Amino acid sequence: MNAIYIETIESFPDTTITLTNGRKYVVAESEQLVTEKILKFYQSIQLIGRGQQEDTDEK
User: Fold this and answer.
1) Other C-beta atoms within 10 Å of 6: how many?
2) What is the reported pLDDT for 58?
3) How far is residue 55's CA from residue 34's CA, in Å, rounded to a whole number?
4) Which of 5, 11, 46, 47 lies in disulfide reach of 42, CB 3.0 to 4.6 Å?
């Protein structure tokens, strides 16, 4: 799944990922773990820098 196409991540209690095309996927990972993996992906393609991730972690 390409993180760029993720529109929302919600927990109902299952983690549900909604893509920009409207498709929904239920995944085994927690919402927090999915978010961490997305941030790492964005960093790997240099879409965000390290400082932006630290700002997100503090919220």
Assistant:
1) 17
2) 56
3) 17
4) 47
Residues 7-53 pLDDT 10s: 999 998 899 999 999 999 999 999 999 999 999 988 998 877 766 55
CA–CA separation, 54 and 58 (whole Å) = 6
Tokens 């999915």 identify what position?
Answer: 34
> Does the predicted model carry a pTM greater than 0.70?
yes
Class of residue 40 by CB neighbours under 10 A (exposed 0-12, middle 13-18, buried 19+): exposed
Coil/strand/helix, residue 49: coil
| Ordered DSSP codes for 18-58 | EETTS-EEEESS-HHHHHHHHHHHHHHTTSS-HHHHHHHHH
